[in-house]
Amino acid sequence: MKLKHMLLAAAASVAFTGPVISEDLPECENCADELTVVSWGGAYQASQVNAYSNPYAEMTGTKFIYDESSNEAVAKLRAMNEAGNITWDLVDVEGPDAVRLCDEGLAMEVDIDEILAPASDGTPASEDFGESLISPCFIPQIVFSTTFGYRTDVEAWNGAVPTSVCDIFDLEKFPGKRALEKRPKKNIEWALLCDGVAKADLYDVMETDEGIDQALAKLGTIKDETIWWSAGADTPQLLADGEIVMGSTYNGRLFSVIEEQNQPVAMLWDYQVFDFDGWIIPAGLPEERLNRVKNFLYFATDTQRLADQAKYISYGPARASSAPLVGKHAELGIEMGPHMPTDPANMGNIIVNNIDWWSSYSDDVDAKFQAWLAK
Amino acid sequence: MSALPPYSSNLQVTWYYAFRVICGLIFFFLIFPILVIMPLSFNAEDFFTFTPKMLALDPEGYSVKHYVDFFTNPDWQQALWNSVTIAPVATILATTFGTVAAIGLSQSHVPFKSVIMALLISPMIVPLIISAAGMYFFYSRIGLQGTYWGVVLAHAALGTPFVIITVTATLVGFDRSLTRASASLGADPVTTFFKVQMPLIIPGVVSGALFAFITSFDEVVVVLFLGSASYKTLPWQMFTGLREQISPTILAVATLMVAISIVLLTVLELLRRRSERLRGMTPG
Amino acid sequence: MSSTTTTQTGLPSDGVMRAADGTPLKRSLARALRREKLRSFLLILPLLAFITITFIAPIADMLFRSVENGMVEETIPRTVEALKSWDATSGELPDEAVFEAFHADFVEAFKNKTHTRLGLRLNYEQPGMSGLFRKSGRRATNLEPPYKEGFIDIDEDWGALETWQVIKRASPPLTDGYFLAAVDAERTADGIQMKPEKERIYLFLFWRTLFLSIVITLSCLVLGYPIAYLLANLPLRTSNVLMILVLLPFWTSLLVRTSAWKVLLQQQGVINDTLVWIGLIDDAHRLTMINNQTGTIIAMTHILLPFMILPLFSVMKTISPSYVRAAKSLGANDWTAFWRVYFPQSVPGIGAGAILVFILAIGYYITPELVGGTSGIFISNRIAYHISTSLNWGLAAALGAILLGLVMLLFYVYDRIVGIDNVKLG
User: Domains of chain A, with CATH numbers?
Assistant: First the structure.
């Protein structure tokens, strides 16, 4: 019903010859005609194109150029900054990268309430986004989580399925290869939680050398049975190929393996790690381009648009007011709600990525982790 | 080695054949990985492995959909287009500079010859990751990082050693009395160069150019650092493909690239024969 | 020009040989030589300039980055100056003057948003510094004297001796910190020390890079020698055809060959499938041949094998078969004739091929990245990681400089053995 309505609206707006401005989108004055957006490529970028940039382009005639460089965004922005030539207008990054870019002065600080639309009931944007505002430069879009997927057809398990994150470390009951990310973050937390550390003490323990040693020792129990991944597509591919029996990755990737590709894989939500992903505006944009960016952001981050994105990919909208509007998958027609990391049923045990802690200690812990991994 | 003498002992006969079998296995090791991807690129499924249908030679197990994907997917097409616009320009730069320098280097009295030679062929010796890192930092400072010319200049620099080496090799066998004869017959140096020297070194120049071309066309490390998404080349797309969404389209591209290699290889071989014939050597 | 007198006959009246124009022959030859030198130099110059700008300068720039440290002094100049008079080993915190200078610097840095960047830089020396600088942010700019108490009030780490020792240590415009980190050492209050065992990684990785490169070089030699021998001793027509089997891989994209090995080696891959199918292994015990050292060694041996075969072949081509025949006619058996007569003559080829393969192997990045897992990666992978992920460019540059030094050393050896003008292709 709603989808049909949207399609009709889209069709209607195409029928107009000139650029059309929707009633609640402010007119863009002194704005560039092009917008270079940096994102992650793949299904995620497609969801942004469908939910944000296509409708916006239809209304305003703006030409979008997508650059799939989010993975190297910090390094590339630093290089551009050294050269004094910023070619990007808007960059999609994960929370930790946004903090880092802000720290380095490479991203622009923004006043959320000034540039973003309030919720339909008038709640100011800063309240609507709430916890997700992790840095003064960060404009949140989605909540995603890193969690586990496992194959449902493993004979050696005799019908048992993993129910707790600690089953990852149980080689007796759940034999087979696992996949974990080739980085300390998240793995250290999971290892300590499964080695008896209480969630509240987690980061205090991690701050000590002994804590890291303890985590590495726990990871050491499954080291020989683990494949270490570095790209988000690795685990889904390894699961589908049968190279591994369980592995961590982003929940949206697992959704696509399970629902879109119909592979014998299921989700394990226990102790999923929450992260935010969103936009930053590179520092030092010329005024015309900045105006266009702001105009686009006002549109792309409103309550409806964030809810629309969830039709294409199973990541939760960062606005509280968007949650009730999340509907069905655009092609499969299944309810997206239960597949959201933010769905209450999936939130039994969670960790929120501690960006502050990791930004201070990641160099150090990473050196230890890599040294451990290499031996 | 060529033939087994009739008086060979049993041991010699055994070894003679064993050696050939060993060599056969090594040749198999060399060539099999390249052959194996060709049938896989016609896989009807999105997998990297042989499906039962393929093994049963069922036509349904095969399809050209990955080739269709390559020729219709804008990502691959853009990458192809970038490769096609970057490699020739880099090749022209490398070949021009390289040929002129090789002629200079082949003169009999060049001061600091070994130092200059070492500098000029260093792009071939320095590990690519270091070249990439250095270029990334330096090109960032001067604003070339992520631009078309940044990639072109880097690839040209990486290609010149090959031109120098191949052109120098053709000049080594060059008989100097030919230029003297030309001069004594009244030709000025420019005429001598184009009428006498050039025809002789042209095979070296062309094969150097081919090396420079394939260097740019195949290069992935430097382009990963120096390029930006708008200047991604085929190898870049393949690399991200191998790491991100693994699809047999990569194998289709690989098969096409092997075909291109075979064509270039044939051209090189013909050129080599021509060069040796011109220089009066036995064609090899 | 020349002003020497000449006789009408052109004969040397003063015993000096003269050219046709009357200049002494020696000088005339010297001039011709000079002109030739100049001409050859002018021909080389464009490329030399081109390579210098596009290649040598970047390498030099990278080397500079590995010691560059102007940032601390630029961001907090007053503090650096004030800290000069502070004795870091005194066991006492710097005095109020230092804190006052630091406050003034901090206010300015905060305005330019460089305080967090400085925090990130200092975090390389001491974990926790970036958090300290970020947290202090606005509150520190609003401080009133006395600043010492004020800062310590914001975060007790400002009252830690270590914080100030780190800042003082990181002040000079040039640093050896990146190089120390690249060899698993660090500069502590007690001087240079090795890092704790558990954090050492780079020396280990350098060692592994060398070890794997040696293994790869040896396997290339073992596989390449018979092939080169066969090619060099077959009739031309046959060897030319077989040569294509060597050159085709040589000309095939590195990525193509690496992805081919991925297809072959993975657990559900072609080799495992075949082994299971013929019953050599059972389905539950498929071999792990990828994402470890085995994968790296197999794939890189395949990729570098032509670089071994080609130089070996060109040397073996020049070995006259009459030596071996002579040895045999003098009573040597096949093995002795080969080992005592043929093999020694092929040693230069082994040297050339081995060093070439080794130099190429030691800097590999793509193949280990794709098939090496964690145990099969090289130092290059770490360099790439520091450039694009951890963003510690100074450390990446220092690691690169060390690797470059190693390669230069090998290159020098190569030049000694083979001569760089003798590199042959195809």
Answer: 2-143+276-339 (3.40.190.10), 146-275+349-374 (3.40.190.10)
